Amino acid sequence: MHAEIGTFQINDGFPEALVRSLMKGFLRDEQYAQLKNCSNMNEFKLVLEDTDYGAYIAAEPSPIELSVLSRKMQEKLMEEITFIKGQAYEPLSSFLSMMLHSYQLDNIINVIEGVKNEVPLEHLMKGLDPLGYFPELKNIRTVEGDDYATLYQQVLVDLPVGTYFRKFLDQEIARAGENSGEQGAMNAETISEIMKDYKQDKIKIFLKKIWQNEFYKFCTEHLPEESADIMGDLLKFESDCTTL
């Protein structure tokens, strides 16, 4: 513990200072009281314009829509996380990346479901969660019919969370092999058969379970003891909620 304290400032001092400075932008009790007393969204927006959120909503027309307000707040948070990640060393940088993978999985599944239903990609991109946005999402393109193999191979090859899809498909192929008594192989036909058997919500559940296990393993193996204990409890709680 003393060694960690003695070397903490070398790699993590500046990121911690950034976090402490961002904490000063948290809404205060009196600001929450003002928001609670607002009678309409015009007043709500005026109160927020005097906070650190002001720069993100000032250009939006009044009355601001709740969906727009939520997205702008998430955009602010994402910019802050991205900036901190850019100043971070390991294991903090990998921790922040894996933390965002949960939101990225949500976005990927939503985009895949959208393109399968022939929703324009431009429209889908506008509805994404800012916390799960990354440029490679645009690489998911519309495919013909039930060409699940092409669709998921694009995810596996191009996207940063492709490892979760790969492990999901490996698990399903292995399970299919156990049921049939034959060793399965990763190919277009097998991928298409697996994808047809599951709805998108179920695929998301499987992917999130793999992500939780991977994140838990990373935290327990690479984070300092105190951080590992806290994150372990949080991820166990989230896993329980997912199960329920």
Task: Describe it.
73% of the residues lie in helices and 0% in strands. Helix 5 packs antiparallel against helix 6 (92-116) and helix 9 crosses helix 11. The protein folds into two domains: 2-87, no CATH class; 92-243, no CATH class. It has helices at 2-23, 29-36, 41-48, 54-57, 66-87, 92-116, 121-126, 148-158, 162-180, 188-197, 200-222, 225-243. It contains twelve helices and no strands. It has 244 residues and is mainly α.
Give the key terms.
mainly alpha, 73% helix, globular
| Helical fraction | over 70%
Shape: globular
**Secondary structural class:** mainly alpha
How many helical stretches? 12
* Integer tally of domains: 2
Order of helices and strands: HHHHHHHHHHHH
Low-pLDDT segments, ≥5 res: none
Query: How far do the termini sit from each other?
Result: 37 Å
Radius of gyration: 22 Å
Q: Regarding quaternary structure, how should these chains be classified?
A: single chain
Strand content: under 5%
Mean pLDDT: 83
Largest sheet: none
Beta strands, count: 0
Secondary-structure map:
Elements: H1 2-23, H2 29-36, H3 41-48, H4 54-57, H5 66-87, H6 92-116, H7 121-126, H8 148-158, H9 162-180, H10 188-197, H11 200-222, H12 225-243
Helix pairs in contact: 1-5, 5-6, 6-11, 8-9, 8-10, 9-11, 11-12
Short description, anyone?
With 244 residues, the chain is mainly alpha-helical. It is built from twelve helices and no strands.
